[in-house]
Design goal:
alpha+beta, Lipocalin, 3 domains, nine-stranded mixed barrel, 6 helices
């Protein structure tokens, strides 16, 4: 009797252990499988489908690095080390400040060569003159990916089309074999391949006339970018870009961020014809009857004369010790 009882107990314990191991193995296998069903949209060939309208949700367009709040255009205030809004933007008040954010650069450092670090500082000091975005130049890569505008991806078998709201910029990513690009281009020349579920895009043939952000981060015509698009879920993918430019940087460096699908039922790209919007900024100094009457080179200079409202004037007189005027 005891022998049969012992055998029964052993059989039950063995079944529980084996069943548990089987369940663990099944769970582990499911975790290592590719995302299925509604998690990641896929094409008929099994590759992820990035088709849709997307937008970054960070402040990398202001500055790729971690940054505190600062005026978009600054001048010294009452205290030399505390900047305030400069005359061209002083009327903007609180919305004339760059919002703070953490950076998207690995190690939170851009490895400039010494001369290039000085140029970057000069770019910040002369932002209104130098930032190509202000004059509506095509934004380039990777900047187009994280500007505060929507963009659309249309994915085919051998080509992927990207259309950007800003300036109507476009780029074609070639999944098939194509000839090298014969010239320089603002948006570069993009050739791609798949590494599992990750789309890897090699971008070259850049002009030097684009920046990485509004903080003066720049490159030369030797720029080379390798992008990686990896799906996270149906509505998000991770974007990474490794940046190399031996004329400007001491080593390659990388940015990384999630980019999200716009989920509104009626979402669409809208027309943003910034060429017309930038006409006065770029060419206003050539007008016969100028709207802005003081220019220094390409920079418009604005002198602010403040007219004190009557109620405020009465208050100021009272504070100064003068009796208010009846």
């Amino acid at each position: 009797m005891r022998s049969r009882l012992r055998e029964a107990v052993v059989a039950i314990v063995t079944a529980v252990v084996v069943g548990g191991l089987a369940l663990m193995m099944t769970h582990t296998a499911r975790r290592t499988e590719k995302p299925q069903g509604p998690q990641v949209p896929r094409r008929t060939d099994g590759k992820p489908d990035f088709t849709g309208i997307w937008q970054a949700n960070n402040n990398a367009h202001w500055d790729l690095l971690t940054h505190a709040a600062r005026p978009i255009v600054a001048q010294h205030g009452v205290y030399k080390d505390v900047p305030v809004l400069a005359a061209p933007v002083v009327a903007l008040g609180a919305i004339g400040w760059v919002p703070p954010d953490v950076g998207v650069v690995g190690g939170d450092e851009i490895p400039y060569q010494p001369w290039a670090a000085q140029r970057k500082k000069e770019n910040v000091d002369n932002w209104l003159d130098r930032d190509p975005e202000i004059r509506c130049y095509l934004p380039g890569v990777p900047r187009a990916m994280y500007m505060p505008y929507k963009f659309q991806i249309i994915q085919g078998t051998s080509k992927i089309m990207m259309i950007f709201e800003f300036a109507g910029a476009q780029r074609t990513i070639h999944l098939d074999e194509v000839n090298p690009y014969p010239a320089e281009a603002y948006m570069g020349h993009s050739v791609a391949r798949w590494e599992g579920d990750t789309l890897v895009v090699d971008v070259s043939s850049f002009t030097a006339q684009t920046w990485f952000d509004r903080a003066g981060n720049f490159h030369s015509d030797a720029l080379h970018v390798v992008e990686r698009y990896t799906p996270i879920s149906r509505d998000a993918f991770r974007y990474e870009a490794t940046i190399e430019d031996p004329k400007v940087f001491t080593r390659p460096w990388k940015i990384s961020m999630p980019i999200y699908r716009r989920l509104e039922a009626n979402v669409q790209l809208m027309e943003f014809r910034c060429q017309e919007m930038a006409e006065e900024t770029a060419l206003g100094h050539l007008r016969r009857q100028q709207l802005v009457r003081r220019w220094e080179g390409k920079t418009m200079r604005i002198d602010v004369t403040r007219k004190v409202p009557p109620a405020e004037e009465v208050y100021e007189r009272h504070v100064d010790g003068n009796p208010p005027t009846p």
